């Protein structure tokens, strides 16, 4: 169960690195604008906010990645704590997006499914260990 939790957490971290790239590095590009449904004007007006938000996603991915690494290195308690902090925050952010902007349900599900699965698998691991 631990291996599955770490793999899914790693995938969630990779997804959040990709979100970081879109929000912080390619926000005004046509492809990213299409992904987020933004006009060129909207993207330009929100560029600074997106840049900052992208780093939040990157930091969640880093915490999760360090947790996966710690768990693989035999530091189970530290690894589990960091993984749960990272993916738990990803899941909470997805829930906030869903509640605050129901029209963005697809994006919320996209960014929240892997963290949800990782939280559940890690919880099962911790209960059965």
Automatic annotation (TrEMBL):
The chain crosses the membrane at residues 54-73, 80-99, 105-127. The keyword DNA damage does not apply. Keywords: Membrane, Transmembrane, Transmembrane helix. It holds the Pfam family DUF1304. It comes from the Bacteria. PANTHER family: BLL0914 PROTEIN (PTHR38446:SF1). This is Epimerase. It comes from Mycobacterium adipatum.
